[in-house]
Amino acid sequence: MRLLDALEVTDRDKRLKVARAILYLAQGVFDECDTEVDVLHWSRHNVFLLYDMGIFTALLELLSMEIDNSQACSSAVRKPAISLADSTELRVLLSIMYLMVETIRVQTEDDRPEWKAARETFKNELGSPLYNGEPFALLLFTMVTKFCSMNAPHFPMKKVLLLLWKTILFTLGGFEELQEMKVRGRERLNLPPLPEDSIKVVRAMRAASPPASAMELIEQQQQQKRGRRSRRPLVKQDSLDTYNERDPFKNDDARDEEEDPEDTDSGIEGEVDPLDRDVIIQPPPPPPPLRPPTERVNFPKGLPWAPKVREKDIEHFLETSRNKFIGFTLGNDTETLVGLPRPIHESVKTLKQHKYVSIAEVQIKREDELQQCPLTLQLWSRFNHFICVSHILCCVLCQIALLKLLLAAAPTSKAKTDSINILADVLPEEMPITVLQSMKLGIDVNRHKEIIVKAISALLLLLLKHFKLNHIYQFEIVSQHLVFANCIPLILKFFNQNIMSYISAKNSICVLDFPHCVVHEMPELTAESLEAGDSNQFCWRNLFSCINLLRILNKLTKWKHSRTMMLVVFKSAPILKRALKVKQAMMQLYVLKLLKIQTKYLGRQWRKSNMKTMSAIYQKVRHRLNDDWAYGNDIDARPWDFQAEECALRESIEKFNSRRYDRNKNGDFTPVDNCLQSVLGQRVELPEDFHYSYEMWLEREVFSQPIQWEGLLQNP
């Protein structure tokens, strides 16, 4: 309580000293602990104590004051080089807030009942407009946009982004909560349950060896010429299998969500031992029977995903069949099968058994009905309004800013004079003078960039998934802005590097990690120990970032042929194929998805020379029963009207916005006010300079205009 009172003193130095004391409490009073477990225990205990005492609200007021500190902003703008010293107060405040948000967010088995109650209260507070009339996340969004507009270059962006990510994760929920929300949403709309839990399916997948490169094929041919015994020609031979004799992915510590597939060595790409098939990939459990037992679908053994078919695909199939056998069509009728041969009946039955209706399709259909009959249909039951229009616009602006930060933090980016300086909170006041100091700073800078990429990728993916579940057109608003801001080529540029080197980068110094560094005696750092790095073969942080970026790319391009053509135009196939070298099941799955949607555009020669990749797509990616992805004969493969596709989407988004958020809602259908007193009593907004020229306006628009009053008496 004494520290809480001292936070309100006017002396800046005293206030900083008190904030450091609170940070020491939140970090677990490590100077009085003997083990790392003790530090973590007391850190958790103290964080809940600090929250009960109202420390977070006091810190928020200080943070708002620092954000609005125009003097600090203007001095930082004028400085030629910004260092750690320019953001000391901000970093201390953000560190305490991050520890509080992350510690309270994570549940443990031995949590006390009052801690569980405090967690729910804190979660509601963070998501409610209790802080200056807006949620806490919006304040952090404002910091990001202010930094990217060069108005506050001293903001510590790494800490802001991490805190923003964890706040969104806490208030809206992570991937598992999203899955539960999706299940509940389908129940509310009376839709059949999901055929499988996608998180569990991906975790059960096994990684495959990547396809052979041209150099490896040449080496194999040379070995054959020398007469060496080769088990199978033109097959990938253990380049990653020998590297993974001790499978690095078996020791997954499940630190990041959806990053822990039970990955084991699977030999040749796309091939599974028939004896092991049932052990490796168990078929998903059958959904609760909503249909008669005779129509139960038996999924093929060995394939991880249940096939899906859209209503649109069934309509297209029947339209083609009717044109062929009858000579006319029946529009969207999927029930009438008169005149069609028996095999077509069986095909339609199979397609209907696998029909999948998404929440997005129901929302789009409902919006179309509301546009056609705005007066006769009542507004649909309110969807989850966790985000109002101002919040959506703020998120859109912030996501453009996030792309700028991602570009600055990407390993393939070259430093430019006009680019954003993201190293303000890692560079010291005095630059290093020894080789050891330079090496340590280099590792710190690389680690700093990796953490920024991780936070941005996770934040973008989380927002896109929540927008899509909330309403499809909210998702389309944000995704279209991302596409127009060149998000697709930016992600491809990120992957256009030696991705194996990025995944296995060792930009961390284990002895400096918290709480190890404050409990154990610090060994002497040498250039050799810094070069050796840690003992981990892979950097989970970078793997997590790569998977997130691939998933964002999938979100932006799914069912969008114009954006798929962007992947083709930017020559993404060889870039993505190189990413298959990372032997991790989840990452390979999303790479194969991106390759699948563009195979029809890549030509027969590409498909012919990449049959192993095609085989892996067949085995790992979900099947759409009448998707002609492998041959390119589909009508959707014709590259025209792609501009019209984006324009039609834009038009639907604008109609949605005007109906949901326009202040003058249904302006065309508002009754005319015929009361003279009411009309004359309305306040009309006039320009500021109108009173200077109103006499001229009266002369021109009123007095000089002849008025034919008798026209009112004539019938029209």
UniProtKB/TrEMBL annotation:
Its lineage opens with: Eukaryota, Metazoa, Chordata, Craniata, Vertebrata
> Which parts of the sequence belong to the Far11/STRP C-terminal domain?
341-694
Highest taxon of source: Eukaryota
Biased region (Basic and acidic residues) positions are 243-253
- Organism whose genome encodes this protein: Sphaeramia orbicularis (orbiculate cardinalfish)
For bias kind Pro residues, which ranges apply?
282-292
Q: What is this protein called?
A: Striatin interacting protein 2
- Region (Disordered) spans which residues? 210-302
Biased composition (Low complexity) is annotated at 210-224
Listed Acidic residues bias regions: 254-273
A Gene Ontology annotation in the biological process aspect, one of them, is:
cytoskeleton organization
